[in-house]
Amino acid sequence: MKATSMSRIWLRARLSVASLLRDHSGIAATEFAVIVPIMLVMFFGTVEFSFGVAANRKVTLVARTLSDLTSQSPPTTTAQTSSTVDDNYLQNVFTASIAIVQPYSATPTKAQLSEIYIDTNKIAKIQWSKAATIGSGATSATLANSTRNAGDVVTVPPDLSTANTYVIFSEVRYLYTPTVGYVMNYSGVTLTDTAYTRPRQVKCVVYNNVPTTACPTP
Known about the structure:
The protein has one domain. Helix 2 (about 25-70) runs antiparallel to helix 3 (about 85-100). The chain is about 35% helix and about 25% strand. The strands form two sheets. Strands 2, 3, 4, 5, 6 and 7 form a six-stranded antiparallel β-sheet that branches. A two-stranded parallel sheet has the order 1-8. It has helices at about 1-20, 25-70, 85-100, and strands at about 80-85, 110-120, 125-135, 140-145, 155, 165-175, 190-195, 205.
């Protein structure tokens, strides 16, 4: 009797072990717990990267728009070879950034507009420069001092390095802050771009009586 009981106990034990080895019900849950965090990081990383690329595209559009609008300033008369812009004109140009950056916040936008003169020796120098910032919830840009100063020597693309000509130069910086900071730099990523445009209707654009002399004739 004892031998029979022991045999039955041993048989049941073997069956229990075999049943346990065949039971895969907890594997899926374990795999899910391991894979889900990785998948979430990949998902949010892809989303944030897409948003970052879109924001970078906005920065490029802002840079092009600023230089383009300034270069299109018209002369007072058809006989003039220069046009004149003032603070009001430049403020309106910078304010255009707000509409371009939407639906992103325009507050992190910092922009500068400069005019470059390339002299006879093909040395490019800043003639005048103005900057602007956009406050939180602001409907218009606020003019500020530029980091560029008149007389600063700058580098222009080789195809624009033509003696005795002017170029409108725009610079834009934008701090893109990700929504989910775990997949990108939590403090944000600084996006930058520049654009160069020749004056469209005139030889040069005058701001605050600069340039003071007549625009050169190429």
